[in-house]
Amino acid sequence: MEQKLLSALGLPAGSKVLDCGCGHGYVALYMAQHGGFNVQGIDIVDHHIVNAKKNIALAGASAQVSADVGDYSDLSRFADSAFDGLYTMETLVHSPDPERALREFFRVLRPGGVIVEHEYEHEPYDKAPKSVASRLQYINKMASMPAFDSFEPEMLANLLRKVGFVVRLALQYSTMSSNEFLMKSKKN
To answer: Which of the residues are catalytic?
Structure first.
């Protein structure tokens, strides 16, 4: 999936990219090593950042990749238009307020910049068997994925448009009750 994310970003080497929800830094390292990007990773979980910093150092990538504790719903530490690209990889579902996060993404992305979201969506719960719907809601609660309950078809695309992005590409990778997709949008 990292290669698909890299290809969808379509940015030149040297681009400044924000990894929102970088976890242990593996995707950020891939983007730096294979795309030549300068990647700033942020994650709200302290021990993820501890591990990300170790992985970055072990890879000898400290000149291209950095990781810090941060909440992507509050990117006030970054200037407007600070990044050429931005991505999430299965992390926006953890946001208690995805619209607020997307507004921050829009603010820190330069005009013409690219955002790529690799996320999941699902059919409305009322269309699923009650046992499936209740299990998904339980999983969302236990896995701290409050946004996923609202990630029905077109919801994320509509939110991206609402905050000002132009949706350029939406690729679906599965046809299960939870659909995996990649969405590329631009800030005009």
So the answer is: 90
